[in-house]
Structures
1.
Amino acid sequence: MELIEKYFGAELTPEQRERFARLYDLYAEWNAKINVVSRKDFESLYLKHVLHSLAIACVCRFDAGARICDVGTGGGFPAVPLAILFPEARFTAVDSIGKKITVVRGVVSALGLQNLEAVNGRVEALEGRFDYVVSRAVTDMAELMGWVWNKIERGQRGTLPNGLLVLKGGELAEELARAGRRFTVYDIARFFDEPFFETKKIVYLAK
């Protein structure tokens, strides 16, 4: 929780602070039943999952009413931390694995998060359109674009034009070249000084 205070403390309301503080115990409880966070990583939940998710907020702040879809949300990352930080935006967290969505729904219910809906299914079958699609290392960028590009509406409902914001790691040049677009790549180490983020990036593509 100290990490969240370090980078975002100045802007948090008491309710947001309480919700972030509760994440550890909530995920510990759920993870004992359904393993959605690697057991070896669990002690680093705030570093490797919560703060990593919030890196997106260092690149794009979402407007009130903005619609954001998290594809392949797993246990709710990045959707849950972002939904806490942006209570006026609307989030849809999608995963094809039902037990992961069970965890997300349990966490969302316990926190009383009214702005996040968890959906068990494939994003291609999802109704509606979104201002932004976010994701964390779910698949190759070209494949991800094939799933979601036609679901993103043009416009600007945040500090960046509507588009795709993807958390990635490692060497990306070949993967991005295959996708055939001009992406903007942000080094997360510009925002957070923990060594974990040295190879972590956010890949952005405007619609």
2.
Amino acid sequence: MAKKNKYSFDSKIHIYRATKRMSQQELADMVGVSRQTIIQLERNRYNPSMLLAYGIAKVFDVTIEDLFDFKED
């Protein structure tokens, strides 16, 4: 049986968002997604596209690696 995914990640979006005192809705509006998408990202239940991850990183002026801790399972 093939393993679903070899890699996983932990999102730190909520930390950067809290630091800027930004609501989930404000971030969602800035990157063009729904608030539900931000919620799922913060709960590590959604794997963002590279473009979405890049957009969020730009909002906080950090790298994608700053936003997510990647691990090999």
3.
Amino acid sequence: MSKEVKRYVVLQRILGLLAVILITLVAVAYAIAYFYDKFGSFTVRINKYDMVKQGLSLSETPYFERSESRLSADMVYDMTNISGEDLPENIDMVNGCHNGDNYIAYTFYLSNSGDDTLSYRGELYIEDVTNSMDEAIRVAVYQNGIKTVYGKTKSDGSGKEADCDTSFLASTVVMRTDREGLAPRAKDKYTIVIWLEGNDPDCTDDLIGGSLKLGMHFALTEST
């Protein structure tokens, strides 16, 4: 009888330990998913020093009810290829995150809330990529309403893709902008749209299961 009791006690302890391990694994997986989803597939940020000392700040609305040094778009899961011609015509007219089923769209504003005229540099870059997703990705940047479409140079090295205005600046740098003379209380509007271009010859089944994460960073270059 005592052996059966001991076995029962041991079994209960093992089951309890397994339950704790399972709960821990689930909690870790949830935390990873939470933070990855929180920071999304596109993140924009500025140096906190530039925000505190010079007044450069970000907001999802033109009214700057809440100024930030970092903003993030929501993630798009299981994004499939589309044509850039299928994107909404008013995609630059919605504030904040306004993703579609198969594209990321994010509109934000950068403001000079300080007392000095500022100049800054913005750089849009690839933070992480798998399965060569960047070979068929398109990035449209609307800067104060002016649209430019970026994509990687053709695989054969013959130049930009036909649907693009220009090629990526470098292998991991999509584009760069140098803004001069941003006056006090002035602001710039940006909309970033990211999609997988189905008409690109590099858009093949090899890209299935791939992922892409982009970021945009702003920093002051001078002030007057």
4.
Amino acid sequence: MNRELLEQQLAELPLYGYFFIDPAQLEFSERIRTICRQECPMYAKSWACPPGVGSVPECQARCGRYENCLMIATITEVADIADLDETLATRPAHEEITNQVGALMEAQGVKPYILSTEACAICDRCAILDGLPCRHPDKMHPCVESHGINVIPVLEQCGMEFQYGQNVVTWMSLLFY
């Protein structure tokens, strides 16, 4: 992949930032999954979520098969960060940018494994609920946390702020290649 060309293309997108990282830098922890199990209504209801994505060690092994990872971030301001509906309404814009970056990589012959922010909403009813395989595995992007990844240490290593203010939402995606 021509990284210089990709960086030129990334500069044209409304990204807050991006970093090329070694997947070995990522911290995988079962502790991150606690949020999924205890707080997320999508737990066990989507192939993009645990346990459908596999165990944390399985996810770590899957990500570890890649030599490189591109981390992208977008930010957006909301009137009230405590308003979950308003906050989540900003997610599709990030997902669109994530798909654009994936398409840029694919245009160079690289098929990235993408982790993003979603529990997947492609289908009205996920096939996992019927014991069937995912209908759109090429379009579905599991969320970063579903894999047990703690991105905060990598953000700190890269010098990227994660908390910008009380009404700023930060979205992150990881594209492994």
